[in-house]
Every structure is written in C-alpha cells, then in structure tokens.
C-alpha cells in the first residue's frame, strides 16, 4: 500500500493513509494546523481518550490545549479567532475526530455552532463582546436549538421569547444541548411571541431561570456532555439578542456552515478505524501467518480503502467549494450523508477484522463505532440530508409526508 508509516508506535497512531495523494494539494496554510493537530492527537489525545470516554469525563486538560494550538474559531476572521480556510478547518476537525469524537464535538459545538452563530448573526459590538473570550476559551459556548418534541423539525420549535420593556423573557425546554451544563454563553433559539419568527439570544451563565441537567447513560461521545435545558422566565437584555438572526433561515445558515464539517468528522472516525485495523492485521498472526496474508482480509482492507478514498475526495472537493465561497447546503448535505454512512461501514469492518480485541476500548475502534452514531444523527440525520438532496434533484419537498 502507498500509505506511509510515519514512525507511530501504538495502535491508533496515524498511518497517514492517502492512497490518491490528496495531501499534495494542501497549501502551507492548510498543512500547518492539520499537522499540528495530528501530532497533538497522536501524542496527547490517543493515550488518554479511552479513559475519559469510559469514565464519561470531559477531557479538560485536552480542551485547554485547543487555543494553544491556535485552532479555535474556525474561519472567523479577527477577534483572536483561528481564521482558517474552510479546508484547514475541515482537516483540523478530521484529525480531532480521528483521535476522539468527544473532543472534536466539544470544539464543533463551541466554535462551529456557538461562535459561528455570533459571527454570522451578531452585531460588531456583540462579536467584540463575546468572540475574543471564546477564542481564548475563557468563555465556553453552547448552541440550544433541539427541543424534546422538535429534532428534525426544529423549524417548528416552541420555546418562546416575549418582549418586556428593554428585555426578553425566554420560556421553554431544550434537549441534547452540548456543553449546556458547562457553558458560559448559550445561544438559545426561540420564537418571538410578537412576530412568530425565530430569533437567537445569548444567555449568560448564572442567569436566573436557566437549568441544565446532564443526559446520563449515553453510549456515544461519552466524554462530552449534553444536557436537557429548562428555561423558566429567563430574562435577557435586548443587547443579547443576535441582531442578524431574524428568522429560522438565519438559524439554517449557521447549520449549513457546520454540515460540511460533519463530513470531515466522519472521515476522521473512518480513518482512525481503518488505520487501526490495517496495523492490527499486519501484526496479528493466525494459522501461522499475518492476517494480511489472507486474500479475504486483503479484499476487505481494499474495499475499506476504496470507500475511505472516496470520502477523502468528497472532503477535498467540499473544501475547495467552501474556500471559493461556492459550497451549497445541498452539496454539504450530500457529503454528510455519504460520509457518515460510509464511515459506519468502514468502522464495522475494522471492528470485525480486529476480532475480540476490536471490542476493547484500548484499541479505539469500538469507541469510533459508538461515536459515529451521534455524528450520523446530529445536525440533520442521514434521512434529513437525503430529503434535502432529494428535493434538489426532483423539485419535490418530501419532508412532511405530503404527496405533492
Ligand atoms: C450526541 C448528540 C449531541 C447533540 N448536540 C446538540 C446540540 O449541541 N445542540 C442542539 O440543538 N442539538 C443537538 N443534538 C440534537 C440533534 O441535532 C438531533 O438529535 C437530531 O437533529 C435528530 O433529532 P431527534 O433526535 O429529535 O430525532 P427525530 O427527529 O425524532 O428523528 C427520529 C428518526 O426519524 C427520522 N425522520 C424524522 N423526520 C422524518 C421525515 N420527514 N421523513 C423520514 N424520516 C424522518 C429521522 O431521520 C430519524 O431517523 C445532539 C444530538 C446528539 C445525539
């Protein structure tokens, strides 16, 4: 195989799998954060990720390293943010998820959703007020859209925002809110009782009426916490209403920007699983030979590699389109749908190729197998992405089950 073995010593370390020489196309700007994140993952994340996952403990020492690596703030320019190109952003998220989906999801929520909401929908004053602290991780962000009764149809959200003098009063419930119990700033999406439109509000830590309860018993992304949120008469000043969020279309703009990142995240999980299985099969002997000596094993590895390479090409192209400002939500949706689906297949193959050792957390793959389930579901399930693309190619929206 053409993958380079870059001197890794433990199962899970990057093999640099790149059969189609995709990396040759990276610019210096893309290469630097990618390689810095890869080293961080191999040296610091992989040795401890399984332990945090098993204990369902947030990896705070690793989280604190993210601003030091200069990778917080996506493609947001200024305010101390990373200001990476979309491709560099994708590469960073890919590498974090190759190591640990929980850590990657933490950054996805904090920077990809919360900071992007402020960057895309906030006024200059609001950006100046919140983004520098978030970029330095002095303030942690959360993004509260999903509700107990509204997931895929979050467009129908029921949390209300009532104007009272110079303030807004928020009431409702939210579910699955990543960082919801630890965040300093929570972007809450609520419906203005006057206009009926969805608006975005930044609720600051300690605001009376905001309660968060961590969702227990989660068997995926265990090292990042999601919470059930109750908002009871939560009073926020008009200054905390995102001035550029005036309808659900604005919420959707934020979500569209992160959908493509999910395709990169899935690529990271699949790469981690493929690399581990490849290395394991090269070393494990049965019937007197390494597993890689058997034709069926080679065929399975090659099929995994073919799918992985396809996922890489999807990512490179959505990166190029995003870099050029031409990535449509539909194309991003197709990439998310394809890559999370393929990742599930690759990871399941990898798990099986590692036999009994494949179910041990110390060998990483079972963690990828559990974690990919959430990536597959959040920010629009595979079915929702399919319906988005289906509407585009047929001209017929099939979301509500209507026949016309
Ligand atoms: C680990 C994790 C982290 C998350 N983090 C956040 C967060 O930080 N902030 C936030 O706001 N949300 C978050 N979410 C919520 C996530 O976005 C939702 O779970 C997701 O949108 C799906 O909603 P649901 O779980 O209510 O499923 P449902 O919408 O109830 O869907 C259940 C099933 O029905 C299918 N379905 C739904 N509608 C249709 C239809 N019209 N046609 C065919 N099939 C359909 C779906 O595809 C799915 O298979 C998180 C979720 C998870 C699991």
From TrEMBL:
InterPro entries assigned to the protein according to its UniProt record, in alphabetical order: ACX4-like, Acyl-CoA_DH_CS, Acyl-CoA_Oxase/DH_mid-dom, Acyl-CoA_Oxase/DH_mid-dom_sf, AcylCo_DH-like_C, AcylCo_DH/oxidase_C, AcylCoA_DH/ox_N, AcylCoA_DH/ox_N_sf
Superkingdom per UniProt: Bacteria
Record GO terms (molecular function): acyl-CoA dehydrogenase activity; flavin adenine dinucleotide binding
Protein name (record): Acyl-CoA dehydrogenase
Database matches in Pfam families: Acyl-CoA_dh_1, Acyl-CoA_dh_M, Acyl-CoA_dh_N
PROSITE patterns: ACYL_COA_DH_2 (PS00073)
Cofactor annotation: FAD
Annotated transmembrane regions: none
UniProt record similarity statement: Belongs to the acyl-CoA dehydrogenase family.
Domain Acyl-CoA dehydrogenase/oxidase C-terminal: 246-393
SUPFAM superfamilies according to UniProt: Acyl-CoA dehydrogenase C-terminal domain-like, Acyl-CoA dehydrogenase NM domain-like
Annotated ranges, domain Acyl-CoA oxidase/dehydrogenase middle: 142-234
Example GO biological process: fatty acid beta-oxidation
Domain Acyl-CoA dehydrogenase/oxidase N-terminal: 28-137
Signal peptide span: none
Species this chain originates from: Amycolatopsis antarctica
Keywords, ordered alphabetically: FAD, Flavoprotein, Oxidoreductase
Gene3D superfamilies: Acyl-CoA dehydrogenase/oxidase, N-terminal domain, Butyryl-CoA Dehydrogenase, subunit A, domain 2, Butyryl-CoA Dehydrogenase, subunit A, domain 3
